[in-house]
Amino acid sequence: MSYTEIPTALLVEAGNLLPHMGYLFEQAEFGDIELTVDQDQMVRLLPLIRWLEYIEAKWSAEEILDEERQKLPPLARR
Q1: Integer angstrom CA distances of residue 1 from 16, 17, 62
Q2: In 3D, which of 71, 76, 21, 73 has the Cα closest to residue 45?
Q3: DSSP letter at 77?
Q4: 5-17: per-residue pLDDT in tens?
Q5: Which residues contact 41 (CB under 8 A, 6 or more apart)?
Q6: Following DSSP, what letter does each residue of 4-71 receive, concatenated?
C-alpha cells in the first residue's frame, strides 16, 4: 500500500458534517429519536465516499500486481 493524501476539500467537507452526524448517531443510540440523515448530507459526503472506494480499488490492484510479480522468475521481475 502506498501513501496517498486525501484531497483537502473532501476532508474539510467531512469535517463540517461528521460532528453533526456523530451527534445524531449518539442521540439515536441513547435516546428515543429516529436517526435521519438527510439527502443533502449524503450528497455532500458522496465525493469522499467515492474517493475512498477509488483508492481502495487502486491499492488492491497494486497488491495483486505485486503478488503476481513475486511469482515470476527473478530475471522477469524487472
Answers
A1: 28, 28, 7
A2: 21
A3: G
A4: 888 888 898 888 8
A5: 17, 20, 21
A6: -PPPHHHHHHHHHHHHHHHHHHHHHHHSS------HHHHHHHHHHHHHHHHHHHHHHHHHHHHHHHHH
